[in-house]
Amino acid sequence: MARLDAANVPSHTLAAELLLMHTLGRDRAWLYAHPESELESASAEKYFELVARRTAGVPTQYLTGKQEFWGLEFEVTPDVLIPRPETEHVIEAALERVGAAHRDDELSIADVGTGSGCIAVALARELPRGEIVATDISAAALDVARRNASRHGVAQRIQFVETNLLDAIAGGARKFDLIASNPPYIPHGDKSALQREVRAHEPEIALFAGDDGLAVYAPLIRGAANLLRPGGILILELGYNSLAGVREILDGAGIWRDIRVAHDLAGIPRVISASRS
Fold first, then answer.
1. What's the domain count of the chain?
2. pLDDT at 1 over 70
3. How many CB atoms lie within 10 A of CB 156?
4. b/e map of 121-136 (b: 16 or more CB within 10 Å)?
5. Quick one: 261 and 138 in the same domain?
6. Are residues 90 and 182 in the same domain?
7. How far is CA 100 from the centre of its chain?
8. Are residues 82 and 202 in the same domain?
């Protein structure tokens, strides 16, 4: 723990616990119930190797291979963005817009830039008759997403498509009731300000979007407009300070109504949603 603290690792106590739990294959309750237990030499070697990698900046989630999202455990690798608690607001907004009365309806849904599959899987669990298309430009990310869908018993209702945004399905006849996305939204110029864990280890293609962070929103919104049914819902996670730019894109299209903004626990605009007129 002292080594992690000295290396300025965020939440170093939690990181030390998670790495120890991973090494031993035990949960937190077991650790606290057995404070007298000593590490065998092989376990100690493995643990201190993980600690060394964490002090070097490798995120804890990539070392343990997992992260919780929406109450579910997801596999994560360096091929995918680590799911954040803030992205759970996308799920909340989707369920609010669908409404309790329609959660059992046969809904057609797209998750654009699925990464680990956390949005697609969470929606599949919450909307039991939903049929989902999950897209990503990364074949490696889709492999992770497929495993997560299988882990949580929803693989039969999620179709995984390797494509940029919605390109591969843009010409099809299928129309969607809901399109959700946590797109890349960090300006390239902000890279040096990011935590080293993010800038050095998470996939850049899932993080950065041009000089202003808005480069992905415009084509994504255009593609969604062509694929949503009338009254269909678009839900997008927002980057810091991106609300005004995204709202301008939506307003400029002239086809979006009932635009709503949800804030995170820090009061930051986190999700924007709109209905296709």
1. 2
2. no
3. 10
4. bbbbbebeebbbbbbb
5. yes
6. yes
7. 24
8. yes
Residue with tokens 């300025």: 8
Domain range holding 45? 2-56
How many alpha carbons fall within 13 Å on the CB side of residue 39? 17
Q: Mapping DSSP to helix (H, G, I), strand (E, B) and coil, where does residue 265 land?
A: coil
Could you give the dihedral angle defined by the CA atoms of residues 162, 166, 172 and 177, in that order, rounded to the nearest 10 degrees?
120
CA max distance for the chain: 66
pTM of the predicted model as reported, rounded to 2 decimal places = 0.94
The HSE-up count of residue 201 (CA atoms within 13 Å, CB side) is: 18
> In this structure, which amino acid lies at residue 40?
E
Q: Are residues 111 and 235 in the same domain?
A: yes
Output the six-digit token pair for 218: 């415009």
Say which DSSP state 83 is in.
P
Q: Is 66 contained in some domain? A: no
Phi, psi (deg, nearest 5) at residue 147: -65, -40
Give, to the nearest 10 degrees, the angle between helix 41-55 and helix 12-24: 140
Q: How far apart are CA 218 and CA 223, in angstroms?
A: 9
Helices (H) and strands (E) in the chain, counts: 11, 9
Give tens-digit pLDDT for 212-248: 999 999 999 999 999 999 999 999 999 989 999 999 9
